[in-house]
Amino acid sequence: MIEVKNLTFSYTNKPFITDMNFDVKKGEIFGFLGPSGAGKSTLQKILLGMLPGYQGLATVGGTECRKHGDSFYQMIGVDFEYSTMYEKLTARENLEFFSSLYEGKKRPINELLERVGLENDADKKVSDYSKGMKSRLNFVKALIHDPELLFLDEPTSGLDPTNNRMMKDMILEEKKRGKTILLTTHNMQDATELCDRVAFIVGGQIYALDSPHNLIMSKGAAKLTYTWDENGERSGSCRLDCVADDQRLSKLISENRLLSIHSSEPTLNDIFIEITGRTLV
Ligand SMILES: Nc1ncnc2c1ncn2[C@@H]1O[C@H](COP(=O)(O)OP(=O)(O)OP(=O)(O)O)[C@@H](O)[C@H]1O
Ligand SMILES: [Mg+2]
Prior knowledge:
By secondary structure, the chain is α/β, with parallel strands linked by helices. The chain has ten helices and 13 strands. The chain has helices at 40-47, 70-75, 91-100, 109-115, 131-143, 161-176, 188-194, 212-219, 247-254, 268-276; strands spanning 2-9, 17-24, 29-33, 55-60, 63-64, 76-79, 149-153, 180-185, 197-202, 205-210, 223-229, 233-239, 258-264. The strands form three sheets. It has a six-stranded mixed β-sheet, with helices on both faces. Strand 1 and strand 2 form a beta hairpin. It is globular and about 75 Å long. Bound molecules: adenosine-5'-triphosphate and magnesium ion (MG). Residues 40-41, 81, 153 line the site of magnesium ion.
């Protein structure tokens, strides 16, 4: 669905994105995970055809991104990182207007508003909306013409836990309906839960690209931590795959002296720091 080969782009005369390569397959959720300023939105904008001055190959649906025509915009839905609504219009008026720009069958506005919990605020002006309400409205605007490819730029940013859950469920529903989704985030939990594959991006470069599970397994080993009583509580740990070699642990188990034991896997955040040397914020 998306192919990027030897992509190079800069806003200035200093190199930013250099020689980047990745592809996105039909039906997958692909994530750009990286800290602020990494280039996540820039990459989305290149793919949307908004930054035509790139070098290398960048195609969506087989068409070079700088050559997208009207049919491309019918095929995609975009949830930008900032609100793209008319503030003086109500939510319903905004959705009616944007819906009228597309051809074909549209999704019912009432249903979409209800799905994101905005049914009682549908006739309120967008200028009176809170940040989270604008986020939810921006998201359903991207769905209105039922596009096959969704670009979601930080769709869960600024949402409370309930709305974060609702948004993630909706994104997973779109995937189930066969849509291809490209999303950016600096929330590693969302990336782990949603993405089939993620690209770690820092400073315009991809540092790693794989499924969250493979990234976690390739670098980190799960750890076992245990405590026992020996003139007060003491603790020890070992790698989960080396439990049999830990003689102290074997002895504590045979003497039934363990107070607690638990295993923990590294998170995608741990792996991100290990691979890129950067935190996600
Ligand atoms: N129009 C522009 N002109 C010049 N520089 C820009 C422009 N837009 C973005 N940049 C720069 O490009 C770099 C990447 O920005 P980008 O918006 O792609 O980051 P991001 O990964 O989306 O960050 P965030 O998580 O904060 O949204 C930043 O250093 C930014 O200042
Ligand atoms: Mg951004």
